[in-house]
Specification:
Length: about 55
């Protein structure tokens, strides 16, 4: 009986450890995606302004 309780505690602890790792990885990926998106927006804004020409009649 004691081994079953200890086993259940270990399984629950492992489940929480895996869930914590998953959330940590997802958080890191969200930060990286936000930085890449901001860099891409900045690059597109700079490239777009330099490539535009005014049409003068």
């Amino acid at each position: 009986m004691l081994l079953k309780i200890i086993g259940a505690i270990i399984v629950i602890w492992l489940a929480f450890a895996v869930l914590g790792w998953i959330f940590k990885v997802l958080g890191t990926l969200l930060v990286v995606a936000a930085v890449v998106t901001l860099i891409g927006i900045g690059y597109a804004a700079l490239k777009g302004k330099s490539g535009q020409r005014q049409i003068r009649p």
